[in-house]
């Protein structure tokens, strides 16, 4: 609540490891809002929240120097970054099991990186050119991405705009939303792929 923050030091709500980082940022020079710093703070429920802070010095009516701090919640963005890194790590582990890739990595690192990049580009090209609607989500069932066909289906301008959103924010039919949740939860809990299912959607 606002009353809990008034009179309290900003540093008191920061994650202990980030306090020095925040102090360095504030001392470094905050004459404009051009610079920012990513840090972690605690919510009222003692949950860790990733935020981006910008700060600027100003002088009040009594000529006292003060600092205006703007805080932006970037927790969803950080969660997506972690998921993407984990996906890349899994992809690299898979490629490391292929003898040809292991050979390239050991004797020709540049060729290995080129092969890895080509694989990403090929996968992206396939996703964007097949007629199916493709989406991918994290384990909390928030969107991590989609192809152009799905973006057009739900009438969003760019596939990137779907990142971090949920079905509740994008779909109108409550039954469809509930069905999606149940089916996705089954896959997550069983860790098994489901093939050849037909669905009728109301958008």
UniProtKB/TrEMBL annotation:
Entry-linked PROSITE patterns: PAC
Organism ancestry: unclassified sequences, metagenomes, ecological metagenomes
Matches recorded under SUPFAM superfamilies: PYP-like sensor domain (PAS domain)
Residue intervals of the PAC domain: 35-86
Residues passing through the membrane, by range: none
Name the UniProt record assigns to this protein: PAC domain-containing protein
Gene3D superfamilies in UniProt: PAS domain
